[in-house]
Amino acid sequence: MNPLFRSSVIAILSLFLLLGVFPLVSASPLTTSAYVVRVTDSSTLQVYVNDSAENVRMIAVDLPSKLDPNKHSKANGLKAEKFLREQLEGRTIYLQFDKQQRDKENCLLAYVWLSQPTSDSDDDLRDKLFNARLVLDGYGRLKIESVNVKYATFLQRYQAEAQVGDKGIWDR
Known about the structure:
Blueprint: H1 3-19, E1 32-41, E2 44-49, E3 52-58, E4 61-62, H2 71-88, E5 92-96, E6 108-113, H3 122-128, H4 130-136, E7 141-142, H5 152-164
Parallel strand pairs: 3-6
Antiparallel strand pairs: 1-2, 1-5, 2-3, 4-7, 5-6
Helix pairs in contact: 3-4, 4-5
């Protein structure tokens, strides 16, 4: 191959990469930053994202309700909601969507990352994925619905850990 032609091809491909025409493959999950205005209940966040207010429900996590008539469930619901408020209100988070992005009430369905993820590794999930933290600490149980199953295997393992460790709602 002609050295001048080869250099020209390399220069053009480099320019395309630089301009994003051929984006480099990234191991980190794609996320959208959002600002948490408030926690409206134990399963819904009110956020400001892409210049608009949205309600977000966390994928795969079912937290007890503070309105539950059962005393134990009600107490766990209050703890969960308090934890969400302390950890999320007034904070920038990162939303990651799965296959289904909205529920029947038009809420966004998302995985909530506390900081920008760098990979889909177990370490990153444990350290940064808030949905995982809720399951690991026993604030709620795993609830896999519809097609949003990206982290289901990890979350099942985390729930088993919480159960064996008698954490949160699994405390007997």
